[in-house]
Write a structure and sequence with these properties.
Blueprint (H helix, E strand, L loop, with lengths): L1 E8 L7 H18 L5 E4 L10 H4 L3 H20 L2 E9 L2 E7 L6 E2 L2 E3 L3 E2 L11 E2 L8 E3 L23 E4 L3 E4 L2 E4 L3 E4 L2 E4 L6 E10 L2 E5 L3 E2 L14 H16 L4 E5 L4 H14 L4 E7 L5 H14 L3 E5 L1 H10 L1 H4 L7 H22 L1 E3 L5 H6 L20 H15 L6 H5 L19 H12 L10 H12 L1 H5 L12 H8 L10
Parallel strand pairs: 1-2, 2-3, 8-9, 9-10, 18-19, 18-21, 19-20
Antiparallel strand pairs: 1-15, 3-4, 4-5, 6-7, 10-13, 11-12, 13-14, 15-16, 15-17
Keywords: ATP-binding, Ligase, NAD, Nucleotide-binding
EC number: 6.3.5.1
Family: Belongs to the NAD synthetase family. In the C-terminal section; belongs to the NAD synthetase family.
């Protein structure tokens, strides 16, 4: 017996249930056109119908009804095409594996253990059997709940895969608001892994042969989508690839012409600028060096070097006229300000945001915020200033990780696109004379060490020193800043947003040792 196996890897739009269902039908029809006579079995990942953000909206009855209507329509289309669709939909108690296209209607597959998967009933005689239970010796082992994100996208080898059996692992491909789905859906058979594109929608069809309950052949995949890849290449480093893909997809989703950002000569803006250029091309990235009386010559030279190596046109502007005018104009309310006092620092940061946001508005661009996770944890940033933006690509990266990804970018490109002097430079906001981040913050590696422990679900204040608890208390106190910032890309299993849900605004933390 021969049949066609389809691996459907979508980048769904949240809440667009009918549109997402039509994408699955398009894959079915494309496979049917290639092989009109053979049975078709399609596998789709979790959230293929709802989208990741759409899963939350299912709590509303009218949204659930719209999803169910799309599911029913998809079932009818599959039945007419004489195809079976194996997919996961969200239920009241979590994801449910289902099969569509049978004459008896959409069928929930019998669960044997929620954590590990489902035992799939045998199909009609014209289709292969499907199961996640290796002891049943099925032909197809389906992983129904996989959504690979950058922090969990490493895929294990199919160790112990029995002869005559294939492993099917569909996943989402593409980025949606704060989520970057790594794609890379795959079929394992006979020691070979056939893989879909990374961070892209894709659909692959395989010509398969089976006999006596064993899979004999899985042919080389044929791509069902005619659209070319949106990125010609992506780095192997998953988080770096996610940064690039997320900027690309976010700008497209909000229908912006490009991005704008401030380049300071520091490591954070350097990484964001490099990722943006790779995602969009230098022509769609507007870069500005907004200097003040405190901006050093070193910062100017490093910013210029970075822009030259990335192929960016760097506009150098001064905020000094506006800065001095603000100090004079505010004197009636604030009195005389000392250079570099906290109010003066925040005025500078907000003046920079004023210019960058004006460019974003005028040219339909997204302002990229360059705050990192270590700074965000300590509230080290100015609301409506350097925390302004429409998207925060690196807010879930610790300072050490920003440094590592800068080096990963250079290694990927085979040249020092991001100058090593920027990577090694001591961090400074340059909002007062001779300022260093270390003047106001604990060491970045200490912030990371303590906050990594505090982000864990087994966090116990009694295990922390008083100095360590002061970092955790500070992080909780500054949740109000994070709540007002732009959407940030999730690049770890535990974000500061998760921390804020437990210890954030209007909550008292008893941290007695």
């Amino acid at each position: 017996m021969r049949f066609t196996l389809v691996l459907h890897q979508p980048a769904p739009e949240s809440g667009a249930f009918e549109k997402n269902a039509k994408k699955i039908v398009e894959s079915l029809r494309a496979a049917r056109r290639r092989r009109p006579e053979t049975p078709v079995v399609l596998f789709a990942p979790r959230a293929a119908l709802e989208g990741l953000e759409g899963l939350r909206a299912l709590e509303c009855d009218f949204v659930r009804m719209a999803r169910d209507a799309a599911l029913k329509a998809l079932h009818e289309e599959a039945r007419l095409l004489k195809a079976l669709v194996y997919m996961t939909v969200e239920g009241d108690r979590g994801p449910i594996a289902m099969v569509l296209g049978r004459n008896d209607g959409p069928t929930e597959l019998r669960a044997f253990e929620r954590r590990t998967g489902f035992e799939i009933d045998c199909l009609a005689s014209t289709f292969p059997s499907v199961s996640v239970l290796t002891q049943d010796s099925p032909m197809l082992l389906w992983e129904p709940f996989e959504i690979r994100e950058p922090f969990c996208s490493n895929v294990s080898e199919s160790v112990g895969l029995q002869s005559g059996t294939a492993r099917i692992s569909p996943s989402l491909g593409g980025c949606e608001t704060s989520h970057a789905c790594a794609g890379g859906s795959f079929v394992d058979f006979g020691g070979t892994r056939f893989t879909a594109r990374r961070y892209e929608p894709d659909a692959l069809a395989f010509d398969c042969a089976a006999e006596d309950g064993r899979l004999l052949e899985v042919g080389a995949p044929e791509r069902l989508l005619e659209t070319p890849a949106r990125s010609l290449s992506l780095p192997q480093d998953e988080r770096l690839a996610a940064l690039i893909a997320a900027i690309r997809d976010y700008v497209s989703a909000v229908r912006a012409e490009g991005v704008v950002l401030g380049i300071s000569g520091g490591i954070d803006s350097a990484l964001v600028a490099a990722a943006a250029v790779e995602a969009l091309g230098a022509a769609r990235v507007r870069a500005q060096l907004l200097a003040s009386r405190f901006t050093s010559q070193e910062s100017r030279e490093l910013a210029r070097t970075l822009a030259e190596r990335l192929g960016l046109e760097l506009a150098e502007r001064s905020i000094e006229v506006m800065h001095e005018a603000a100090r004079r104009d505010y004197a009636d309310d604030l009195g005389d300000m000392v250079d570099g006092e906290i109010t003066d620092q925040n005025i500078q940061a907000r003046l920079r945001s004023l210019r960058l946001m004006a460019i974003a508005n005028k040219e339909n661009r997204i302002l990229l915020c360059t705050a990192n996770k270590s700074e965000a944890a300590m509230g080290y940033g100015t609301l409506y200033g350097d925390l302004s933006g429409g998207f925060s690509p690196i807010v879930d990266l610790w300072k050490s990780e920003v440094r590592a990804l800068c080096r990963a970018f250079n290694a990927w490109k085979g040249s020092e696109c991001i100058p090593e002097a920027i990577i090694e430079r001591e961090p400074t906001a340059e909002l007062r004379f001779d300022q260093k981040d270390s003047d106001s913050l604990p060491p970045y590696d200490e912030i990371e060490r303590v906050m990594r422990a505090a982000l864990g679900t087994d966090f116990e204040p009694a295990d922390f020193t008083e100095a360590e608890l002061s970092i955790v208390r500070a992080a909780a106190r500054f949740a109000f800043k994070r709540r007002q910032c732009s959407i940030g890309l999730r690049l770890s299993s535990q974000t500061l947003g998760d921390f804020d849900e437990r210890f954030g605004i209007n909550r008292t933390i008893e941290m007695r040792r």
